Amino acid sequence: MSAPARIVTANDLIDEFVGSPEYIARMVEACIMSHRFEEARQQRIASGQEHVCVVCGCSETRACAEGCCWATETHCSRCV
Ligand SMILES: [Zn+2]
Ligand SMILES: [Zn+2]
Q1: Contact yes or no for 58/67 (Cβ under 8 A)
Q2: How far is Cα 50 from Cα 43, in angstroms, rounded to an integer?
Q3: Residue 2 counted as domain residue
Q4: Which residues have beta carbons under 5 A from ligand 1 (an ion)?
Q5: Cα of 8 to ligand 1 centre, how many Å?
Q6: pTM recorded for the entire structure
């Protein structure tokens, strides 16, 4: 006699994954990567290598969330 097999749903798997050391490690890594990217972007902007919108701060490697393009030398299409 064996106990009826427990049906594992996708939610069970997600619950198990979220909060696991692997999940936390991945989240931390993703966070570090985005910080590094932003730091490098700010450095390129500061050194004049990257064009930036004076209003919202979007630039060549990070457009506005809804997407934008350059409208003038200093403003993106969302900020004119
Ligand atoms: Zn923009
Ligand atoms: Zn802008």
Answers
A1: no
A2: 9
A3: no
A4: 58, 64, 68, 76, 78
A5: 45
A6: 0.68
